[in-house]
Predict the structure.
Amino acid sequence: MALRDRVMERCLRSKLRPVLCVLLVALVFASVHQSTSPVWNDSPNLAAVLCENGGRLRPREESCSASLRSAFRHATLGGYRPLSAFICYSGTRYLALGGSVFVWSFPVGCLIGVFLLAMNRVATRIVGSRIYAALAVLLLTCSSPFVAASWVIFAGLQVLVPLFICLGLLTYWHIQDSGWRSRWGYVSLTLILFFGPWFREFIGLTAILIGMLDVVQRRRPTWITLICALGLAHALVPGWIVHQFLPTAPVKFVFHTGNLGTRVAATGYAGRGPWYEFLCGPDPKTALGHFLCLLPSPVLFLMLAAVIIKPTASVLAWWQAGRPLGPIGLGRETMLVWFTVAWWLGSLLPLLRVFTEEVHLCYAIGPFSILAAVAVGYMLRISRGSGVMRTGMRATIMLLVAVGVGDQVLNVPNSILVVTGINRGIKQAADKICQTTPVGAVVVGNALHLEDARLASGGHFKSYWTVTDGISYSADRAFMTKESLVDFMTRHDKEVVYFFDMDYDFIPYKRGYHSHRFLRNKDFDVEKLWSMSPIDVRYPFLDPIKNLIPREFTNILFSPDLENDFYRGRAADHSPFVREVYVNYALYKVVGPKAKSIVLTLQGDSDDRLYSPRCLIDRDRFWEVTPEHPQYLLASLNRPLTLLSIALSSGAEELDRMPSSVTLVGAEDAGIWHPIETLAVEPWRPNETRTFAVSNARCFSRYRLSFDVPNPGGILRVYGLNLTFAEADIDRTVSTALGARE
């Protein structure tokens, strides 16, 4: 027993300790993922293979070498990221062939463990204290972007971005500590800057940071400056080198490729200049709002206090001593603190222009966590000493740190709780769909995670969407208009179509796009099959300020791309210190397109014409025709339509001039008039509107309405007339004019 204890103690004190830490992180990470289902964006990639191809890989994708060449030849929707694309393919292929989630997740967990060690070393060098460095790593690891990104295990590993940045900085400092003579250090730095942009273009920031740090420290161009300049050029045009060997590789500026190019090209402030858009556009405000909610408010308060107190202390010292004093408790090297500020700004400012998801703020939360640890250390240093005031200040700081850290740590178990609840609810919804729909049914939903339900159902149905943002398939899998879905139903008349409705209390400005447009607009006749609420997860928090944060800035603890698929915010019953994630599901069977209507009235203007053989009398009040003129109206349309109903209105006087019957006939263009129906009209009351349904199954482009009055040979008067026509293929309502024709 004593020998084993000594061996364990030596292992913990030796260089094996980092390895043990990495393996422990990987073991926990893999165990958690083993107990849950794949999440978006992993799930649509698996569904595309298991459901689209009958559970088999396409022949051209069976070779890993061929897939690697394909990844370098073409850009994806995300941009030119060949190594990320290859990792995505490898993970999809491995799991689709029945591989173990635990086995695949373990090396991903090792990457996370290596990143945490690298981040700890970077923070230790900047802060100068292992305790405060551990605090920085803890704030980062438990932040909502990092936790949410960790659920994705092959379709976009966000941890690679901060990992490459930290490895680049550690390599540079290793070269510096070796007296600028480490050859392997130069080689390692070159490889990091070379391969990094092929994972994600944001890693190009590493070249800027190291180049800036080297110029400030050595005050002259060096070999490292040259390496960083070449690395930055490679990051800006990552396909140029590959293009020399594979001519099909895109040679484009990184800001003109993929989703990044789309976001940069999009402008909503034409004519006001890019600076106005950068400073006043919706993206900067949204990004800053999300970012300020990533760290608990007690930590932010301590950072604000440190920012205020430090300059104030320097000014007071200058006032009392006649010269400014040196840095007050900012760590071992003040310059590294300012470098961390530059790192933070360099990671955050680009996102103000192209912000899309909270998960990308993971790049900026790392240096910000280091600055938070610096601020906490500074506040504790100035509170040292005896006295009631300093003791109370120190106790307050410790309380704020405890509340902040406790609230941040809760993100991890809360995320596991939320993701587990979501996956369980999606599985229940998938089972319900399987019970109520035939195999191969077309399900049109407004939820991205409809593909998760499809994967859980084993490919029982075909998924389509009413949104385009975020779906992994081509645009033909989304129906943005009624006409596109009607056309699809016409071409696939043998397939049954269902509407899968994801509903919750949407944020008002998001309801129009993310709610189910066809159910909201009542474009189709549907039959409701079932509704359920399988997802309703509540979780606690400690930060009191979170009770006041608007819903749209609530942290995302589940798959980052599904931020609009679930309600997230304060608990529905307004319980304090409780947040909630929920969604309601309903399934509808589509009976057919609902008949929209065109309405012709006595007022208006359009291509369709409603006219009489005689000019109007007192047009603003009524239409009247004397007995010596034909007492009928003609409706001339620009296309054949079916008349559904006729609405007539009376006035306050001259009720004996209102029609006692209406005879309706129709014709196609200038053809023969076909009788449709004669409507008998009861005596009129003052200010009355009556609607008469028309039994007509044919479509005509011309209709004629002949009127009879109670007194033969009397005057005809109509105060209001509406004609409603069925229209199954055009979604609009038209009001047209009454013209005069001899």
Q: What stands out?
A: Residues 159-266 form one domain. The radius of gyration is 35 Å. The longest helix spans residues 101-127.
